[in-house]
Design a protein that fits this description.
alpha+beta, 12 helices
Amino acid sequence: MNRQPIAVALLALRHTLLGRDAPPGRRLLARWPRLDRYATPVGLLAVLGLFLITLTVESEWGLPTPIALLFAAMTVAPLLALPRRPLLAWRLTVLALLVCTFNAPADQSWPWTPPLALGSIAVLAVVVGRVDRPVLVWVVAISTVPVLALVDPDNRVPVLLLLGALAIVGDLIRRNRLSRHALAAQTEQSEREQERRAVLEERTRIAREMHDVVAHHMSLIAVQAETAPYRLTDVPAPAAAEFVAIASSARDALTDMRRLLGVLRSESSGPQTAPQPDLADLDALVDTARRAGLPVTLDAGPADDGRVPAPVGLAAYRIVQEGLANAARHAGGAAVRVTVRAGHSSLEVRVENSPADARPTADGGPGHGLTGMRERATSLGGTFTAGPLPDGGYAVAAELPYDAEGGDR
């Protein structure tokens, strides 16, 4: 025998009779602050009026004044507790229905005063919309006890049907409220996620541009400073030491910048639409690398034959720029060949260097260059590969389609 449903039912019964109260609902006039401030005094006046009406009716039934006062207080007590303690209000209502029946004359077919009956319906209507379903079942079941025990058999069926209708409507209201709360929570979470993602995208964009632009020039500074004593003749010893210091400072700056990029960078970013260099700027980029002492050969077609979209041109420029920076940092003295081929539907970019004949000009710690190149290629729907060559050199290659949706990120 499965005892779990029984245990759940018993726990729900315990909660119904002795457990914590249901949370209060939203104030009825919360959307109208000017009216809401009068809700409490008007409600108190209404309860006072109900108290006086109940007292009058019970006095006409011939009850002693102390008992009439007690029964009138028990009639209005649930309404006072209802706004903040709905479950407590229902418990007081059941108690009042059981106790206050003794004041009805013998010739009355209805055992309660009209204020008590109407107040009980109002309390039950609020409670069934505030409690969970297991508690709701017990609330309705226990509410039928006074009806079955005290109401005339001819009047029981309408009352029981009313209780059933209240239970169904209350459950629907509760489910609708929970759905709205869940939707609101999901919407809020989605908005926070969008805000967080927007921040990450902007940080990634900044990180990429810092890496593509600043790291490239810093690498060239390091290369120029280290090779200057060998390229220039009759360099005084103090000047040679100064070149060494410049190269060391440039390498330290690159290391610090990589740490900063590790903080800024994330796995995704959004489109970058600001004006950027393109294929027409490759010659100037290669000339700068040559002046820094990097032997570079450029093999490219026309700078712009009208087929290469601007995002593809920008991605190609950044890939070449990062490829030259990597060669300068990790393959000192190696010959570098840059190949750019514009096909019918895609642009092919390749940067390869021969084996290094000098020690690297920067430490071998992990950077973000390959990750940035791969992101630029994949954001355009293209492909990217990088790896060592059989002769000991290294190559990066990308194929960038023209018609891919999106743009450089």
